Amino acid sequence: MTQALISIQNLSFSYNGDKRRVLDGLTLDLPAGSITAILGPNGVGKSTLIHILLGILKPSSGVITISGKDIHQYTRRELSRLIAFVPQSEYTAFEFSVLDYVLMGRAPHMGMLGMPTQNDLVTTLERLELLGLSGLAHRSVLELSGGERQLVLIARALAQEPQVLLLDEPTTHLDLSNKNRILTTLSKLNQRGASVIYTTHDPDSAAMIAQNLVLMKGGRVLSSGTAEDVLTAEGLTETYGVPVRVVSVDGQPVVLLDNSA
Q: How far apart are CA 116 and CA 240, in angstroms?
């Protein structure tokens, strides 16, 4: 059995002034060395869970351990070296070069003066090369396409040298070509040893690359396991509130709206 890198036990959370629990006794193990896709529509608590894992939000109850250690025992710098976050998008007002932008990911490793060392630069260049971005190193981030920007965000996260890469809806708003590029990149990073966790609305993209899938509803885990275990017509219909069918294409589950219903 794959060891849990992140273990979540009985996690609950409510926003101030709201009696509704966004997370309600959520329990989940996220395995090391795997790609985990957390599935569900808007409002089920996916983003809230991410913000708690990043230490931005504090749960009302529950325990989270990372590599067997309580998350509250880590300093902010230590947590930044463990988990790197890739948002859906990020507004940038300044014309940073791609190189300088990715170099910002080295912040958790920099000294008191916060100045990058030669090692920081080498690490950054290696991450750009890994993602096929070396040719864009001196281009402004404001000139990049949507797919290129997403890859640059991933490169910046990798510059942190984290144990786990956490992504929020990484393929949202991307065309099919860039969607495939991002999913292929995540798969390759996993093959190199990275633990990848990402949220998505799209069951099909999860089935493409994730070894471990989690289906959320009402702030809880509805089911978790392989694509075959999780992507069932019954479970997806209950979660998304629309009738669906699940068919197999070349051995991979594909989710279709059930118009006959």
A: 46
Domain that holds residue 96: 91-160
Which 8-state DSSP code applies to residue 180? H
Number of residues written out for the chain: 261
CB of 8 closer than 8 Å to CB of 208: no
φ, ψ at 5 (rounded to 5°): -80, -40
Q: Which two tokens stand for residue 5?
A: 């890198």
Domain shared by 178 and 196, yes or no = yes
Same domain for 221 and 198?
A: yes
What amino acid is encoded at 114 in this protein? G
Question: Which of 160, 192, 219 is the endpoint of a domain?
Answer: 160
Residues 20-38, mean pLDDT to the nearest whole number: 94
Rounded to the nearest angstrom, the gap between the alpha carbon of residue 31 and the centroid of all alpha carbons in its chain is: 14
137 with 149, same domain: the answer is yes
pLDDT (tens digit per residue) in 199-212: 998 999 999 999 99
At a CB cut-off of 8 Å and minimum separation 6, what does 240 contact? Answer: 41
Residue-wise pLDDT tens digits, 67-101: 999 998 998 888 988 999 999 888 887 889 999 99
Q: How is residue 103 written in tokens?
A: 């170099």
Angle between helix 146-159 and 176-191 (nearest 10): 20
What are the b/e assignments for 22-45, b being 16+ CB within 10 Å? bbeebebbbbeebbbbbbbeeebb
- pLDDT for 2 equals 56
- CATH number of the domain that residue 211 is part of: 3.40.50.300
Residue 103 Cα to chain centre, angstroms: 20
Distance of alpha carbon 222 from alpha carbon 217, whole angstroms = 6
3 and 56 part of one domain: yes
Q: Are residues 18 and 128 in the same domain?
A: no
